[in-house]
Amino acid sequence: MFTGAGAVFASSDTAGLVEQYKTLLGHLGNVVDCGKVGASRALDYGVVDLAFINFLSFASNLEMMEREGVDPKIFFEQVSSEPNIQP
């Protein structure tokens, strides 16, 4: 049986409709009941926009580091290490 790994943002103006189909929709991924019609689109746009902006920022910064001679290995080591934050 196919099981999705993504997210399904679902909306309905009919109370309980998303919950009624949650098992079926769950085969596509994690079901998120967003509320009234239109809310799922707004959430989807927000999530996709955030991911896209982060990608653009990453690409821009990687290009800048390359131009300045920073070894990308140093960057990846720093972003993957635990922050040293003292309370």
Q: What is the averaged pLDDT score?
A: 91
The spatial strand order of the largest sheet comes to: 1-2
Low-confidence sequence ranges: none
Query: Count of helical segments?
Result: 4
Distance between the termini: 48 Å
Oligomer: single chain
Succession of helices and strands: EHHEHH
Helix content: 40-55%
Overall description:
This protein is an alpha+beta fold. The chain has one domain (6-80). Helix content is 53%, strand content 15%. It has four helices and two strands. It has helices at residues 17-20, 22-25, 39-67, 72-80; strands at 6-11, 29-35. The chain has a two-stranded parallel sheet with strand order 1-2. It is elongated, with a radius of gyration of 20 Å. The termini are far apart.
Question: What can be said about this structure in brief?
Answer:
The chain has 87 residues and is an alpha+beta fold. 53% of the residues lie in helices and 15% in strands.
Layout of strands and helices, then pairs:
Blueprint: E1 6-11, H1 17-20, H2 22-25, E2 29-35, H3 39-67, H4 72-80
Parallel strand pairs: 1-2
Descriptive terms for the model:
about 90 residues, two-stranded parallel sheet, alpha+beta, 4 helices
